[in-house]
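Researcher: I've been going back and forth with a colleague about how Anti-sigma factor NepR domain-containing protein might be arranged in three dimensions. Neither of us has a model we trust, so I'd like an independent prediction. The organism is Marinibacterium profundimaris, in case that matters for your notes. Sequence below.
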Amino acid sequence: MSAEDMPEKDRAAKMEQLIDANLKRAFNDVLKEDVPDRFTNLLAELRAAESKNRSSDNEQSAQVAQAPNVMEDDAPVAQQQAGGVRNGR
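Model: Here is an independent structure prediction for Anti-sigma factor NepR domain-containing protein. You can compare it with whatever you and your colleague have in mind.
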């Protein structure tokens, strides 16, 4: 059976199989290569920076939780300034 006799669906499937096989063959060696040191070092730096940011965020969250809530004390003043409280209410 020649390629001309094959139905379009079968021809497309055969072409996909050939493409897949060729791509696997071409990139198989690349998959086996180690990651270059410069990328490994960069990833380590990024992880360290991310870890530092997380710990600093956690410290800030703890400080905010311990801080007095100034907004509650200033709410009547802010409402008066915004026109929300009228006639002493």
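Researcher: What would you highlight for our discussion?
Model: I'd start with this: Residues 8-65 form one domain. After that, consider the following. The first helix runs from residue 8 to 32.
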